[in-house]
């Protein structure tokens, strides 16, 4: 008899600062929890537009934005991660999301996504540029040129649209977001541990009678 | 020679769900970190209104609101806290904020604030009602009737306005928020540990050279 490994779907958006924090530790934390990650790049833009936002809430609400950048600096310092503020912010993550979607192999997709986030947020490279995307992927042993070209593939475009639609269907409104096999939604790098515990079946679940 | 105990200013808003989470553990966590809490009830309403919000963002953005309530249920279950959804939500916290501001003694203020949050979010009582506020405070050994009457005192009203202005001056945009003696701002129950570590001088601080 084989027992299925618990899985957790990770919705990540390349423009999202807190997605960077989560992406850089996700594989390690998931391995520790005995959970397999299903990586789904998606786009927040259509979700934000539907609620009337034309840019990141961190730009729309300056006090929130100032706290976010300071919080990122603190968290990155504590985790030993470099942080460079992308300029412009937010980056247009469409190309990177399509290219990451085009990577079929799970392990390769994880590696590619992590390399692209590090290029953007640690090194300040422009991941909206196809040449940069190709070079970053080549740097982690993937066929960057072929993958960058696949961004124009209608099937890849459709798959990314499907990921965004699926995210919306699960109630996603920000990034990163994590969805368990039983549909439980967790938002933010701050909820990664909770999401993994839920996926692994070790979380305290609400709704039981008081005192049970 | 006396060494001053580190302090942390806690800005809490009675309508705020995540303030409830923080308030119920703040004294214990602060004691463990060797930090003294300076309690400052404030009002988010004027801050939200200034950015065009007439109600809680959890009402304005339904997907965000649905996640918040589920997240609260999960966190409360994990911490052994009861949770009742206030109706209407958000409560008008003006009266409770004024009354809490009127409590001069630090220990009594902490006790009063905690009792009011528990009445609202654990028991579902209406803390916009002066009789309820008085009864809740009496229940923890305070002179609830006299304190409830002090909500109309112009000096108390002015002190609460000052707390809100000070919060804005520190960059506060949500609740709970924590501000250290050196002006570092931390937003959310999720950042309580970070704020206490910063106040206690044990946090990793950003801005040092790479690799230092």
TrEMBL record, chains A, B:
Active site: 16
Keywords: Isomerase
Catalytic activity annotation: 2-hydroxychromene-2-carboxylate = (3E)-4-(2-hydroxyphenyl)-2-oxobut-3-enoate
Residue intervals of the DSBA-like thioredoxin domain: 7-194
InterPro entries found in the cross-reference section: DSBA-like_thioredoxin_dom, GST_Kappa/NadH, HCCAis_GSTk, NahD-like, Thioredoxin-like_sf
EC number(s) per entry: 5.99.1.4
Entry superkingdom: Bacteria
GO BP, one annotated term: naphthalene catabolic process
Entry's Gene Ontology molecular function annotations: 2-hydroxychromene-2-carboxylate isomerase activity; glutathione peroxidase activity; glutathione transferase activity
SUPFAM superfamilies: Thioredoxin-like
Family indicated by similarity: Belongs to the GST superfamily. NadH family.
UniProt name for this protein: 2-hydroxychromene-2-carboxylate isomerase
């Amino acid at each position: 008899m084989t027992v299925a490994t618990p899985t957790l779907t990770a919705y990540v958006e390349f423009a999202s600062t807190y997605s960077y924090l989560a992406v850089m530790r996700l594989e390690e934390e998931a391995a520790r929890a005995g959970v397999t990650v299903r990586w789904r790049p998606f786009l927040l833009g259509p979700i934000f537009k539907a609620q009337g936002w034309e840019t990141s809430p961190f730009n729309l609400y300056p006090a929130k934005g100032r706290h976010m950048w300071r919080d990122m600096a603190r968290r990155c310092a504590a985790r030993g991660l470099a942080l460079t503020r992308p300029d412009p912010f937010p980056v247009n993550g469409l190309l990177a999301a399509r290219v990451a979607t085009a990577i079929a192999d799970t392990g390769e997709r994880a590696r590619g996504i992590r390399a692209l986030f590090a290029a953007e947020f640690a090194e300040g490279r422009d991941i909206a540029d196809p040449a940069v995307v190709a070079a970053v992927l080549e740097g982690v042993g993937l066929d960057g040129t072929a993958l960058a070209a696949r961004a124009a593939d209608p099937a890849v475009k459709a798959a990314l649209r499907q990921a965004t639609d699926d995210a919306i269907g699960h109630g996603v409104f920000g990034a990163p977001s994590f969805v368990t096999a039983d549909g439980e939604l967790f938002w933010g790098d701050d909820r990664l541990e909770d999401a993994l515990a839920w996926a692994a079946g070790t979380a305290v679940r609400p709704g039981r009678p008081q005192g049970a």
